[in-house]
Design goal:
about 220 residues, 4-stranded mixed beta sheet, 2 domains, single chain, elongated
């Protein structure tokens, strides 16, 4: 009888352990971290143990510091997360050692907030919330918010500090191929090419400058 009781106790403990293990696996405990610094419009630092760690918003590619609307993007992310406790979901590490994550402050989904305000473009990372982010991104485009307002489109070439002549070579980035291409005044579709200063697109004074920056001449220039 005593052995049966001990056996029942062992079985009960084993059952409890297995239930706890399965629950922990499929419903992991969410840990909150305090944000100690905002780096730019899509990256911030959290306190982790005795050190810190950078976190990047999945699905959001904000303008780099120094680019058009980069300050506005950083200011908005600061408003949303600075000094607050954030919950990280669907996280993994990128090649730079940053935590890629869907970020929440309470019920507020920060990644979506940045896109819905037009302060970031969608990136290529897989994400269980991708459709939700896509809707926010498209909504911002339709409403012409932030990056889609036209405020970052440069239509007038700057003047060269040396010759005082217009630097009218357009350095454009093909969004589909992610290829850097430059266009001369003589290129067939020059007038249709735009320069978005929130990206790495820019004006050049000479072809040498364009090539040094990694741009190649458009095939339309040789037609």
């Amino acid at each position: 009888m005593k052995k049966q009781i001990i056996l029942y106790i062992i079985l009960a403990l084993s059952l409890i352990f297995n239930i706890f293990f399965l629950y922990s696996r499929f419903f992991p405990k969410e840990i909150s971290y305090k944000v100690i610094e905002v780096i730019d419009g899509d990256t911030f630092k959290i306190k982790e143990g005795s050190g810190d760690r950078r976190v990047r918003l999945i699905g959001v590619n904000a303008p780099e510091i120094g680019k058009c609307l980069s300050i506005e993007a950083k200011t908005k992310l600061t408003e949303l997360v600075s000094g607050r406790a954030v919950t990280l979901k669907d996280q993994f590490s990128d090649p730079f050692g940053r935590i890629m994550a869907n970020v929440f402050v309470g019920d507020k989904y920060i990644n979506r907030e940045m896109l819905s305000n037009g302060l970031g473009r969608m990136d290529y990372y897989e994400n269980p919330h991708r459709e939700e982010l896509k809707k926010a991104y498209e909504s911002a485009r339709l409403a012409k918010k932030g990056l889609y307002s036209g405020v970052c489109i440069s239509s007038k070439p700057p003047l060269s500090g040396i010759t005082n002549l217009p630097c009218n070579i357009k350095g454009n980035i093909d969004e589909n191929l992610q290829k850097k291409i430059y266009f001369l005044l003589t290129c067939g579709n020059y007038s249709q090419v735009t320069i978005d200063l929130s990206t790495d697109e820019q004006w050049f004074c000479t072809e040498g400058e364009a090539m040094s920056a990694g741009f190649t001449k458009s095939p339309t220039c040789d037609r």
